[in-house]
Design goal:
Elements lengths: L6 E5 L4 H12 L4 E6 L11 E4 L5 H10 L5 E4 L14 H28 L4 E5 L12 H20 L6 E6 L18 H14 L3 E3 L2 H9 L4 H6 L1
Parallel strand pairs: 1-2, 1-4, 2-3, 4-5, 5-6, 6-7
Helix pairs in contact: 1-5, 2-3, 3-4
Length: 231
């Protein structure tokens, strides 16, 4: 699809991958980029249009959809994580993670799907993770939310096919953001993830595997289960 001249919405666009998405859209010629955030005052880039949006609040999602009725690209980037391993993680944290990462993506996608249809189909992009395919004992709540979000992405891809909406799932391992500051594992930049996503949109590709670890894990899914677990 064409990015030049498009109107886009990026959730969680005040920092990290979300801000990189927003800037990449502008660099590729988007005419307008809404930055969907809980606090519009956190948007300091004058080229972005602040839009109050809490993905866990149905009323604010509905208001945002009414205010941004001109969008033809929606990027669901808003996401959270919390420390806690398999045996000690807080269930309250786990519910909050699922509420934002899974149900928040569902709420925004459902609210904006009719708008995308009205505006010609456009694209729906979901920021997923390598963890979509790999349960992690150190991050069980986050990994489960991303697995659910991946399933949701597939459901929307099938459900919105008739209206001509391109649905893209973006998978990456560790990215250089606040969310992964706790680990010294190899990371790619948010700008790299964003640019790969722009290329997927331009090429009408439904999936981005942003780094080598993610590509290897995806390829291993057809192997015996013990090989996938080991990886």
């Amino acid at each position: 699809m064409d990015i030049k001249g498009s109107v886009a919405l990026v959730t969680g666009a005040n920092r990290g991958i979300g801000l990189a998405f927003a800037r990449a859209l502008l660099a590729h010629g988007a005419a307008k980029v809404y930055a969907g955030v809980r606090d519009p005052a956190t948007i300091t880039d004058p080229d972005l249009v602040p839009l109050r949006l809490d993905v866990t609040n149905p009323d604010l999602v509905a208001v945002a959809a009414a205010q941004a009725g001109d969008v033809d690209i929606v990027i669901n980037n808003a996401g959270i994580g919390a420390p806690g391993d398999l045996m000690t993680a807080s269930f309250d944290d786990a519910r909050r993670i699922m509420e934002v990462n899974y149900l928040g993506t569902w709420a925004v996608s459902r609210a904006f799907a009719p708008i995308l249809a009205r505006n010609g189909g456009g694209a729906l992009v979901n920021m997923l993770s390598l963890a979509s395919w790999a349960g992690r004992p150190a991050l069980p709540a986050y990994a489960a939310s991303k697995a659910a979000q991946w399933s949701l992405t597939q459901a929307f891809r099938a459900g919105l096919a008739e209206q001509g909406t391109l649905v893209v799932g973006v998978h990456a391992g560790f990215v250089e953001t606040d969310l992964s500051a706790w680990t010294d594992a190899p990371k790619i930049t948010a700008e790299d993830v964003a640019e790969q996503t722009m290329q997927a949109l331009l090429d009408n590709r439904v999936e981005v595997l942003a780094d080598e670890g993610t590509r290897q894990l995806k390829a291993s899914l057809s192997q015996p289960l013990d090989a996938v677990t080991a990886r």
